[in-house]
Write a structure and sequence with these properties.
The structure holds 2 protein chains of 2 kinds. Chain A has no helices and 11 strands. By secondary structure, chain A is mainly β. Chain A is globular. By secondary structure, chain B is mainly beta. Classes of the chains: A mainly beta, B mainly beta. At the A-B interface, strand 5 and strand 10 of A face strand 4 and strand 5 of B.
């Protein structure tokens, strides 16, 4: 069966510091991968998605970036965090031919 | 722009009652819809999906209804239990996209014992 991991689970970072969140998927190959952000009490905002290694599509221009160095690894980064970057970050995957996405446990980021 | 939205942001029901959560969508080109359940502090969990060539689909204690005429989607939960308390999101495949889902704002379901 497939599983998706995210770490860290929680993170508190000062404004201006860098960020690196990691997501890995097990039990599948060549998945589509997604990064979402969820503000408190709000819906899911798609940030980036990837259909293959090194292929990144950005949905919302901001100070975040994403990379996919390996088939089942997706990384979300920032060089300098802003207060507005606080939120719940979710990674998701799906098989290319299907529609349904499966989510990881999320990372709670608080920028202070 | 195109969007998926929910009629009711909160819903409170008694344990054992049936729950109905509604969702409106505006993109007539969307042909796949999905419901997720998100418990506090966790990632969304797939509940049930439906394609536009269907108007009803049933799962275990859940039923999704799709009315393409009025662009309306609903999730019915039978015999609601305290463990059903969560935020429920509907999502559509963004005008027929094979890559992206557009999510609604969510409805908070609270089940009172």
């Amino acid at each position: 069966s497939q599983t998706i991991h995210q770490w860290p689970a929680t993170l508190v970072q000062p404004v201006g510091s860098p960020l690196s969140l990691e997501c890995t998927v097990e039990g599948t190959s060549n998945p589509n991968l997604y990064w979402y952000r969820q503000a408190a009490g709000r819906g899911l905002q798609l940030l980036f998605y990837s259909v293959g290694i090194g292929q990144i599509s950005s949905e919302v221009p901001q100070n975040l970036s994403a990379s996919r160095p390996q088939d089942r690894q997706f990384i979300l980064s920032s060089k300098k965090l802003l207060l507005s970057d606080s939120g719940f970050y979710l990674c998701a995957w799906k098989q290319g031919a299907l529609y349904e996405q499966y989510f990881g446990p999320g990372t709670r980021l608080t920028v202070t | 722009g195109e969007s998926v939205g929910l009629h009711l942001p909160t819903l409170s029901v008694q344990e054992g009652d049936n729950s109905i959560i509604n969702c409106a969508y505006s993109n007539s080109a969307s042909d796949y819809f999905i419901w997720y359940k998100q418990e506090s502090g966790k990632g969304p969990q797939f509940i049930i999906d439906i394609r536009s060539n269907m108007d009803k689909r049933q799962g275990q204690r859940v039923t999704v209804l799709l009315n393409k005429t009025v662009k309306h989607l609903s999730l019915q939960i039978a015999a609601t239990q305290p463990g059903d308390s969560a935020v429920y999101f509907c999502a559509e495949n963004s005008g027929g996209s094979n890559y992206k889902l557009t999510f609604g704002k969510g409805t908070l379901l609270t089940v009172n014992p």
